[in-house]
Each structure stands twice: as C-alpha cells, then as structure tokens.
Amino acid sequence: MTEYLLILVSTILVNNFVLVQFLGLCPFMGVSGKLETAMGMSLATTFVLTLASVCSYLAYTYLLEPLDLAFLKTITFILVIAVVVQFTEMVVRKTSPLLYRVLGIFLPLITTNCAVLGVALLNLNKNNNFVESVLYGFGAAAGFSLVLVLFAAMRERIAVADVPVAFQGAAIGMVTAGLMSLAFMGFTGLVNV
Amino acid sequence: MWTSILIAVAVLLALAVIFGGLLGFAAERFKVEGNPLIQQIDSLLPQTQCGQCGFPGCRPYAESIANGDAINRCPPGGETTIKALADLLDIEPLPLDAEHGVEQEKRVAVIREDECIGCTKCIQACPVDAILGAAKQMHTVIESECTGCDLCVDPCPVDCIDMVTLQPDIRAWTWTPPKPTIIATDRTPPERTGVSA
User: Fold this and answer.
1) Average pLDDT, chain B
2) How far apart are the first and last CA of chain A?
3) What's the pLDDT score for residue B186?
C-alpha cells in the first residue's frame, strides 16, 4: 500500500512530468491562458494518460513480450495512444461541445504530448506491474493537471499585473514556468522511487 | 529471420484492424447530430423571432453566433442574454449594439378592440402566432404568447395596437446589479506609460 502512495507522491510532486522531467511542455505553455481551458485540458489529458498507460502496458505484456517483439514497442505505443486520443475526442465532442471548441487543436495534439509516450516507455524501464502502471499513468496526469491549473491561475493574475513592457506576454510566462520548476525541484529527496 | 518479420507485420496489422474496428464502433455510438452548440445558443436567445438582429429569427442568429458573429445584437434579450452567451462561449461580454435597437422593459401588444377593423394584417406579421382573429372579425392578442417584438404595430392600417409596458411583478423583478468594478482584480490594469519603472 505504501509503495502505491509513494508512486503517486513521486509522480505528482518529486518527479513531476512537466516541471522536473520537462515532458509535455507544449500544452503547458499553450493551453494555460485561461483557467477553464486549462481545467478542460487537464481532464482530457488525465483520461488519455491513464487509459494509454493501461493499454500500452497490456499490449506490451500480453502481445509483444510473448511474441518476442519488444522492438515494436514504440510504434505499438504510438498506435495505442492515437486510438485512445481519437476515442477521447469523440466522447468530448458528444458530451461537451463547448469544451470541444475551446480545446480545439490541443485535443488531437494530446497524441504528440510526449508525456503520454514518456509514461508508457518509463513504465517498461521501471518494470512496473499492472497496478503500478495504472498509478504511474494517473499520477503523471495528476501532476500535469496540478501544474497546468496552477500555472493558468498565475497567468490570469499576471495578465492584469503591471509587467514591464519587455517582459509582457510569453516572456513573463516562461520566467514564471522557470520559477515554478525551481520550486518543484525543492521536492527532490522527499521520496525515492 | 523472415518469420519474425512476418509475425511483426501480422501483429501490427491485427492491432491496427482491431483499433480501427473499435474507433468505427465509437464513431457510430458517439455520433453528433447537427451542431449541438447551435441548440445551446438558441435556447439562450429570447425566442421573440423579432428579427432586430438582422436575421429572420432566433435560430438563424444562433447559427451565425456559432460561426463567430457578434453576440450583442439581441435587444429583447438585453444584457442578461449577452452575459449568458458570453458565459457559454467563454468570451468577453460586449455592450448591446445600439444599431440593432435598445433594451426595453418587457412589453406586450394590446389591440384596442373597438377600433379594430379585422384586416388580419397584424396576424400575418406576428412571428409567434400570438394574435387571434379572422377576416372582418375583431382581433385580440394572447398576452402570454406575445413576445413584445413590435412587428404588428406598423402593418395596422388604423393604428389600434398599443405596446404596453409590463409592470415588473414578483417573478420578473430583479435587484439592480452592483457595478462590475467592485472587486479590485476586475478593474482595468493601470495605464502603461512608455517604460515602466
């Protein structure tokens, strides 16, 4: 039980995928302009990441490994991720047309979110079992959501702040992201997984 | 050597076929009929069908908004509708476009019945079929159906239609909202003057 908790703490805080491992920076900078959009994107990514982590684990363990086809893992994972993203897109389009419009191009772009493929590959490297893979994927997504929502909230505040002309727009965003990353580095050594 | 390549190709092919089938099933299962956004916008518009926005009715205007048209062209809906639309579409609310009319109290048409000559012109003009009557018979307005769109006033040859302002009753009355600048962070940022310190 403790291990599972440690996996969650590790992926959310200590080895945060965005701020410590620098995966998935594109949606982190791209969709963080508005808090609501950021939340929608977080939910979609959480769903995709967890599902993709599970599916790629199953595909690897029950298909590729018995057939001795481990060299096909990257292309298989990409196939799995693309399918999961397509599926999510259909569901979002049906259930929340507004969210579908707001997320726009970023929804299909989850396919190219390197955190998704990163989780699938890291699961293999760490020899995670099924439950651990689920938690690892979910923790990665929760960490991503956490920093995305925090960052979006900050950017909404920065938008009305009196920022020097040279730093306005993307520049202050980058500076903020860097400071957040520094802050998250402070969690190093909290747990060791 | 060749067998392993063949197996690899076969496995990938099988995976692709299975996933393709799944997606095909999902596409059928989660099919979207029409554009649901238009329906959501349409349900927020007041359904007066008055045409003051420049479109023949509320639904065409809803379609146009969904395609990115301005949301501030509906005088009967007024500020409330604009705010609801801005909320739905996640954009900034705009003040009502004066070109299309000004916001008024809710009104209904009332026919002065002894002056009515029964010409049916107002019946043809009414977009919501709220006027009852027949040729050479006195007409009257069904008050609960009338949307107060003004369209019947002009066609009347004897000018016997009045627009009567409804007194706000206990269901329609609203408190005057406070100024939007009451919260510090909602105020406009200070003016930037060249290079800031």
Assistant:
1) 82
2) 14
3) 62
The values of phi and psi at residue B161, to 5°, are -105, 125
Q: Which residues of A touch B26 (CB under 8 A)?
A: 86-87, 90-91
What's the count of helices (H) and strands (E) in chain B, helices before strands? 5, 4
Instruction: Specify the fold of B105-172.
Output: Alpha-Beta Plaits (3.30.70)
Q: Which residue has the higher pLDDT, A16 or B191?
A: A16
Is the pLDDT confidence value at A193 over 60? Answer: no
What is the rounded CA–CA span in Å between residue A86 and residue A95? 14
**C-alpha torsion angle, residues B68, B72, B78, B79 (rounded to 10):** 90
User: Nearest-CA distance from B175 to chain A in Å?
Assistant: 29
Q: To probe the interface with B, which of A86, A103, A172 has the most B CB atoms within 10 Å? A: A86
Q: Fold for B36-101, please state it.
A: 3-methyladenine DNA Glycosylase II; Chain A, domain 3 (1.10.15)
B197 compared with B28, residue with greater pLDDT: B28
Measured CA to CA in angstroms, residue B116 lies from A193, B39, B164 at distances of 87, 39, 17
Domain ranges of chain B: 36-101, 105-172
Q: Which residues of A141-163 are buried (b: 16+ CB within 10 A; e: fewer)?
A: bbbbbbbbbebbebbbebeeeeb
Do A160 and B185 lie within an 8 Å CB cutoff?
yes
Give the SS3 label for residue B38.
helix
> What's the confidence (pLDDT) of residue B145?
84
For residue B35, is pLDDT > 80? Answer: no
Q: Is B22 on the interface with A (CB under 8 A)?
A: yes
Out of A170-179, B8-17, B77-86, B185-194, least confident range: B185-194
pLDDT the model gives residue A38: 87
